[in-house]
Amino acid sequence: MSLYPEELIREVQNRADIVEIVSDYVSLKKRGENYVGLCPFHSEKTPSFTISPKKQLFYCFGCGTGGNIFSFLMKKENWTFPEAVRWLAERVGVRLPEEGTWGKVSEAFKQKREILEINRLAAEFFHQNLIKTAEGKRAREYLANRGITSETVEKFFLGYAPPRWDGLIRFMRSKGVRDDSLLKAGLVIPRSDGKGYYDRFRDRVIFPIKDITGNTVGFGGRILGEGEPKYLNSPETTVFTKREQLYGLPMIKKGGSNLILVEGYMDCISLHQNGFTQTVASLGTSLTEQQAKILKRYSEEVIIAYDADTAGQSATLRGIEILVKEGLKVRVLSLPEGKDPDEFIRTRGKDAFAEQLSSARNFVDYKLDLAGRGLDLKTRDGKIKFIKNAISVLAGIENRVERELYVQKLSEELNIPRQALYEEINKIIDRTTLPNIGSKYKNSQLRDNNKELTRFKALSGVRKAERDILRMMIEDDSARDKIMKNLTPNNFVDTKHRKIAEMIFEMVNRNEVVTPNGISIKLKDDQETAAELANILMETADIENSMVDALINRVKENYLKLAIKKIKNEINQAEKIGEVKKAFSLLNTYHRLKLEIEQLKRDSSRKGGT
Ligand SMILES: [Zn+2]
């Protein structure tokens, strides 16, 4: 049973574009009629995840996951079908029946939505407190002193948490929000005596953190006066996972200019205000793999602009590793010692910052620069140390051409034969990377071969015929009529195919229009069949109209063969236990099937079919 009328679900799906929604999760490239990308459901290096915008379906040829936009959201977000419908409906602006009628939505989903709503209210409270109250004056002055304009305050919806223990708690109570809900949202902390709660954020400038869809998922707060910690974030909640969020993410554009990655909220805001609108902050100093994956959806290149202090430097090095591993091009902005991007742009202006950006160095140059820092290259000792450091940097370059170029450069600069450098580099590579890469390569090669083989086997012969028939039934009205006159759903031997055929027969009998969407919605409770449907429809090779008869015969012949085999067994069984009457009646069926299959064979040989 569906919670929503099917027309409504179809309406939601018709308004949504699977390419647009999925590209929030996967970086997609156009290939022919379709889009391809790296599959979010299994680990791969070459894209086998395919989306057909025309059919509004996706299918991964690597792991076999597939279906419509709802299947995608259910898998990716771990939602139930009604949850996926609800979310998508909101996104595309379709009104669904109100609460109560969607009672089956899971508790976890409801709780998430409750927390998001509380966060929205809290952001509003902090914001009003900043711009309108007497209490907010100090925070307004603080921001003004740092050059933050009121437009920027609005754009980032900055706020101020009052210097009281229960400012937010009181406000929320007046809105009917319970204290324990605030705890789940991470906005309050239990008192140590166990009696009630107090506000987590007090006397702080508040930075609401939004996810890609614009929901406020958490907060960052900077202390106004003295005090520790200087910056405080929301704790992890069901809607806030710090390692998966980036501050400023909803503001940046896909395929725009290169991304600038900064450490802090103020850096991010300040750069945006000065026109560098492709800036995000990593919420703390160490970039995570998940954040790098998100960045990759937006751009091919990231410029790291962390603080120019020791902590910033080691964060930069870690960031480089992670970004390079995700296949991103990385450059590093080097600001004068001790400066952060916000300070730099305030004191030197945006033109100077733009200049710094354009001269940001490739990460290898940056690392080589660090490798020589503090060493006197004029001395023999210094030179040897530098070479040692530099070699381990070069050994880390995966691209051989790039490595070659750096070896050349280094050999000229230091006046050392290239061969000598190579020998040292190769020692490191042999020791670390090669055995790993080797075995990984072999394994994946083996796996791929097996995969190919099973796919080939599975698709050969009858299964392929069944799939082609189903595709024709969905895509070609005249072929469908012919097929329905000659086959029944029972003739499909593969259970998934039989199920799809049943759906199509049912739709035609009810005078419904047969569309990929229509069928895939009906398959919402059977994601395996939904994936098979997507796979079938991803096939683009044309089927000649003249093939219909041959395909029908192939499917039917296979069905008859199996039916005859089955009935033979039953006859044997009946004879064994002496059920003569039953054996006779089975024998009748047997002869009928035999006649049918012979007729079929005669027909197809006359038509020159299979
Ligand atoms: Zn996959």
TrEMBL record:
Q: Which cofactor does it need?
A: Zn(2+)
The text of the family note is: Belongs to the DnaG primase family.
InterPro entries assigned: DNA_heli_DnaB-like_N_sf, DNA_helicase_DnaB-like_N, DNA_helicase_N/primase_C, DNA_primase_core_N_sf, DNA_primase_DnaB-bd, DNA_primase_DnaG, DNA_primase_Znf_CHC2, DnaG_bac
**Quaternary structure note:** Monomer. Interacts with DnaB.
Residue ranges of every copy of the Toprim domain listed in the record: 257-338
Pfam families from the UniProt entry? DnaB, DnaB_bind, DNAG_N, Toprim_2, Zn_ribbon_DnaG
| Keywords linked to the UniProt accession | DNA replication, DNA-binding, DNA-directed RNA polymerase, Magnesium, Metal-binding, Nucleotidyltransferase, Primosome, Transcription, Transferase, Zinc, Zinc-finger
CDD domains, A to Z: TOPRIM_DnaG_primases (cd03364)
GO biological process entries: DNA replication, synthesis of primer
Q: Which GO terms describe its cellular component?
A: cytoplasm; DNA-directed RNA polymerase complex; primosome complex
Q: Which SMART domains match?
A: TOPRIM, ZnF_CHCC
State the protein's name.
DNA primase
Q: Which reaction does it catalyse?
A: ssDNA + n NTP = ssDNA/pppN(pN)n-1 hybrid + (n-1) diphosphate
- EC code: 2.7.7.101
Q: What is the cofactor note?
A: Binds 1 zinc ion per monomer.
Domain commentary: Contains an N-terminal zinc-binding domain, a central core domain that contains the primase activity, and a C-terminal DnaB-binding domain.
**NCBIfam families recorded:** dnaG
What exactly does this protein do? Answer: RNA polymerase that catalyzes the synthesis of short RNA molecules used as primers for DNA polymerase during DNA replication.
